[in-house]
Write a structure and sequence with these properties.
By secondary structure, the chain is an alpha/beta fold. 35% of the residues lie in helices and 19% in strands. It is built from six helices and seven strands, in the order αββαββαβαβαβα. Strands 1-3-4-2-5-6-7 form a seven-stranded mixed sheet, with helices on both faces.
Length: 216
């Protein structure tokens, strides 16, 4: 057990690398290691959270332009050849941001199809972490994504971002309200996490949630 805990802790302490961007299903890596995916509105702070989670600045691209992530971006711990049995223990997938109204319609449809196909067809996908801006809570386009995840029977967990931007009593109230809002959703994991990329709040809890998920 102690050895497993040490291995789990080392997973996030080691360097991570970007291995590929996937614009369509035919470019997906072969199924092997467990995958967890991060989804969220285009301006929710997804890239910042991934960089903070993996303690590497600039790994996931951050931009002032919403909607920049247009592919499924794959990240894995470094130091594995990827050949034979020398596979990384997990992969983290940065999904295209949704809800960016100014993106061309055809582009939005392409992203949507890619995400739908990935959710429905990826057996190694263990959980999707759906990021919600703590300042705004769950919006209509977030609910549409939760509906999709419920329909696809893909386990997901809500992660509040930018929790440092609101006062602690408001965070506690939002955690309770969000838990109640998803209580009857069939694929929702009931524990809500609050995080801050800037202050590094809640990152250890998120890392532990990911470790628990890939070890299930």
């Amino acid at each position: 057990m102690t050895q497993q805990i040490a291995q789990d802790a080392a997973l996030f302490a080691r360097p991570w690398i970007f291995i590929r961007g996937v614009p369509s299903m035919k470019f997906l890596p072969p199924e092997g290691p467990a995958e967890v995916a991060f989804a969220g509105r285009s301006n929710v702070g997804k890239s910042s959270l991934i960089n903070a989670l993996l303690t590497q600045k600039g790994l996931a691209r951050t931009s002032n332009t919403p909607g920049r992530t247009q592919e499924l971006n794959y990240f894995v711990p470094d130091g594995y050849s990827g050949e034979g049995e020398d596979l990384p223990p997990m992969a983290l997938v940065d999904m295209p941001g949704y809800g960016y109204a100014q993106a061309p319609k055809a582009q939005v449809e392409q992203w949507t199809k890619l995400v739908f196909d990935y959710l429905r067809g990826r057996a190694t996908l263990k959980r999707v972490y759906v990021l919600i801006d703590a300042r705004h809570g769950i919006k209509k386009n977030d609910e549409d994504v939760l509906d999709l995840l419920d329909k696809a029977a893909v386990s997901y967990q809500i992660v509040l971002t930018k929790s440092d931007k609101i006062k602690p009593p408001a965070v506690a109230k939002l955690l309770a309200a969000t838990a109640e809002k998803i209580r009857k959703r069939p694929a929702a994991y009931p524990v809500i996490l609050a995080t801050s990329s800037e202050k590094h709040d809640g990152l250890d809890a998120l890392r532990q949630a990911i470790i628990d998920t890939i070890n299930m």
